[in-house]
Amino acid sequence: MSEPGPTPPNSPNPPNQQDTITATIIAGPTAGGKSARALDVARARNGVVINADSLQIYRDLPILTAQPSPMPDIPHRLYGILNPNDPMDAMRWRDLAITEIRAAAAQNHHPIIVGGTGFYLKTLMEGLSPIPQIPEFIRLMIEDLKDRMGDEVFYKFVITADPTLEGRMDPKNSRRLVRAYEVMAATGLSITHWQSLPKSGPPQGIRFEIELIMPERAELYHRCNIRFEEMIKQGAIEEVEQFDTKILQGEIAVDAPLTHALGFQPLQSHVRGEMDLETAITLAQNETRHYAKRQATWFRHQLPLCDPPV
Q1: pLDDT tens digit string along 97-140?
Q2: CATH classification of the domain holding 267
Q3: E strand or H helix at 21, and its extent?
């Protein structure tokens, strides 16, 4: 895990063309080899590796989230910097990433953004739709409503209120459901309406080279299986046990983002004595393969549509 790099002085003027920063994006499904490729590029180009994974930004589960080990010769940024209870969204990550990209360039390092959270990468390159800021009291009211209803009932409640969301929202992703409903409650319009509006655009003075790492499916699935077995050997069970203890003690929220890390819930069931280890590993590997497949599909259809800014 690493500390964020220094922030260069802000300039009120847009950069000139000769000052344009070129950053490399290395994207693809989980276990596909992105981190290893990022190291190769960093060594070849005096690079700084910047995290674009929505869970690797948190501390406490570095093994299970496959965070790279600290490298004395290659700086890594935005890994393990947040408390597990700290909320994160694509726009906040974008601001952090742009700061790190500019800090790297100011120190004559090549910025390398690596990760599998496709929405973060699209937000970095394209910006976001202009959704108005939602008052905090509305968010808190809706979170309380969700807690009282339970996830399953709340999902049905949200898609009944906004039928355009049916089939577009993961019923288990309570944070996105809360976000969708809070936007409708505050603005009277569906979040899909706001998302259809023109986006804020790419960051000024930064252009992107995109490298997509996409192993063949059989190889990808094999890598998913082997990597999870390695995580177990490295101490993932003990890591989850310590994390779950903090949940039971009230130090970490039961629905903190890291509880959605691949394999967390099966291993949590195991450390609580509810599931044998072999079953937990099998379920975690299945979960990882299915997620990798969904990621690969998303990247094939979405990432090529991102026109790199010039």
Answers
A1: 999 999 999 999 999 999 999 989 999 999 888 888 888 888 88
A2: 1.10.287.890
A3: strand 21-27
